[in-house]
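FIELD: query
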Amino acid sequence: MDGLKDNIMETRQGNLRIPPVESPGAVTTEEGNLSEDKLTENKLTENKLAEDKLPEDKLPEDRLAEDKLAACTARARGGNIIFFDGVCGLCDHFVQLVLDHDKTGKFLFCPLQSDFAKQKLAAHGIKSSELGSVVLILACGEPAEAAYTKSEAALRILGALDKSTPLVLLKYSLILPAFLRNFGYDLVASNRYKVFGRLETCRIPLPEERQRFLDL
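FIELD: result
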């Protein structure tokens, strides 16, 4: 009772001192700063995890290109690759001709416009931008890899087709001097767009042909 009286007296005299009451969950300034830092760190971690889990169609273009190039390289290893102008009507007919008469699948196909073609041709000192040509690479990725262009490429391809087609006999034209063979080849190649037209996009193979085409 004496204590209560003392408090009442202090209140009347204006001397009552009430300690500050902390709200539930309140933090000191130092603790608040630590919490903000922690939140920032957690946010950065979440963003990093989200980037790592991006779906394939949202990956950077350069990474997609690298993955595609690696896939082409793996599929092409040991194969015989025909590189062709993907927007040339004549080349499209030539590819279809090979498909029709190469039932055993000796050849794979890849457009000259692809990154894989540019890489592989550059390794042989061939610039695809300077070619109005079909390019043939045998034993791709192997020590015996060899590249052929223009008339030699075309005649070697025709000569390796199924024996049931008379086109295989054209391989004997290889005995002619290269300058004679390439004169006729260059004449046709330089006018191929005028005569056979230019396609808007590269050839889209049929479902049963897709395994024969790289860079898809």
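FIELD: remark
Residues 112 and 128 are 6 Å apart (CA to CA).
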